[in-house]
Structure to design on (451 residues):
């Protein structure tokens, strides 16, 4: 395993720090996506202030608390670039149903009856508890009552992109598109300067929001300098419906109305032609791949290797726990790697180092946070995850990236830091009352099942 060089790729600093961490291996992802020995990381006020040789960093911070992780790999926190966090309460419902039946006969009727601020608060906390325990430090959430979700995440010290919902169908959150938009813009104003919460437009899909309104979203996104997060080309049936109703695919329609731009975060993207892959990549659209959910619902397979070859940014997402059924991003990374290798009939595609980068810096780029998170570099936020390698399933560690991708690393997470705060340590949730979180989940199971 390479050792760090003394070049400026690893800047050091003598500022006071809150904590110094010395892992067995450090995987910074950028500027070098390698596993490095002999490094320590210092951070202060939520920001990484020093990254360099262990002895030098410790010498510069003699009075700083020191966390020795002699059996661990330290890497950037994983980024879940697409999810519906509160749907963790719907985990396991509608099993083995088609996407259409799952939505129409299970999910939407349950949401119509039960979805409110309490549901979103409890479901979001449950999702955050699962994610921080498995190495995720940032998520993008597209769901109703986004202010409630944002407050739950902020209280838990969790980093969130709140993609506020834009949908025309009346629901418990809004009566129409205009009410959604007004609430979303108010949400954006409230969290404009928040260190953990960012916002973006979240039109559910091109088939649930009229193209005229999507054009309005494109204009507003430019005016307020915001991204747009949308389900796009999730199934062949969706694309066929667009051709029948609109005379072209949704990608082409979004291009015509000015929404197919570098502001767009396009989720799923399973049913695409080679020409559309080229167009999406040329326009700078960022793609979010949700392999587990897509496979479980038989929605299709995103051609990740083609998107990457065309130059597109690709991040990973779990989707909601109702269609996954978990929120473990290490598991999602493994599935993405295996699906690409199997789908391309080529074991050389998407090596483990690339998958780790996709799950961290790729996800950060996909949701526009790569200047803050996604890699361990001086000046970035201290979103860090430690994985214990001292387990029979991880040893011997001949390839650290492969060990993290293919050996159930989510179950070996011991420490999760977000913005410099330890939110999870050795089975203890520092910012959540886990007993209350689990009790609420059980209570919702009773209500949802009519017990």
């Amino acid at each position: 395993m390479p050792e760090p060089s003394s070049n400026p790729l690893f800047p050091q600093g003598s500022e006071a720090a809150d904590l110094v961490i010395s892992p067995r291996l450090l995987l910074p992802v950028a500027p070098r996506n390698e596993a490095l020995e002999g490094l320590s990381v210092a951070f202060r006020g939520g920001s990484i202030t020093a990254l360099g040789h262990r002895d030098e960093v410790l010498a510069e911070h003699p009075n700083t608390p020191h966390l020795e992780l002699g059996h661990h790999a330290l890497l950037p926190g994983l980024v879940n670039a697409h999810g519906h966090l509160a749907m963790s309460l719907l985990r396991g419902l509608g099993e083995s149903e088609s996407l259409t039946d799952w939505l129409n006969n299970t999910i939407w009727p349950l949401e119509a009856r039960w979805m409110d601020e309490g549901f979103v608060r409890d479901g979001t906390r449950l999702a955050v508890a699962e994610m921080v325990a498995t190495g995720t430090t940032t998520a993008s959430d597209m769901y109703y009552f986004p202010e409630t979700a944002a407050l739950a995440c902020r209280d838990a010290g969790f980093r969130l992109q709140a993609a506020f919902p834009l949908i025309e169908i009346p629901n418990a959150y809004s009566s129409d598109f205009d009410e959604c938009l007004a609430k979303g813009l108010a949400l954006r104003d409230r969290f404009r300067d928040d260190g953990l919460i960012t916002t973006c437009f979240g039109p559910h899909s091109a088939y649930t929001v009229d193209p005229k309104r999507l054009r309005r979203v494109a204009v507003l996104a430019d005016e307020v300098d915001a991204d747009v997060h949308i389900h796009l080309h999730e199934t062949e049936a969706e694309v066929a419906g667009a051709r029948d109703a609109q005379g072209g695919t949704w990608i082409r329609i979004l291009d015509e109305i000015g929404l197919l731009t570098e502001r767009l975060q396009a989720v799923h993207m399973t049913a695409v032609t080679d020409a559309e892959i080229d167009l999406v990549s040329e326009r700078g659209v960022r793609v979010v791949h949700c392999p587990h959910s897509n496979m479980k619902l038989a929605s299709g397979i995103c051609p990740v290797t083609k998107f990457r070859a065309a130059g597109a940014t690709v991040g990973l997402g779990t989707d909601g726990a109702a269609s996954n059924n978990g929120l473990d991003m290490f598991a999602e990374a493994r599935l993405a790697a295996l699906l690409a290798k199997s789908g391309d009939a080529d074991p050389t595609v998407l090596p483990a180092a690339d998958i780790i980068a996709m799950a961290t810096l790729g996800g950060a780029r996909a949701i526009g946070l790569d200047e803050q998170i996604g890699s361990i570099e001086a000046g970035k936020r201290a979103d860090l995850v430690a994985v214990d390698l001292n387990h029979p399933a991880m040893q011997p560690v001949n390839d650290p990236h492969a060990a993290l991708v293919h050996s159930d690393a989510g179950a070996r997470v011991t420490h999760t830091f977000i913005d410099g705060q330890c939110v999870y340590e050795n089975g203890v949730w520092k910012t959540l009352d886990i007993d209350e979180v689990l009790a609420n989940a059980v209570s919702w199971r009773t209500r949802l099942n009519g017990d």
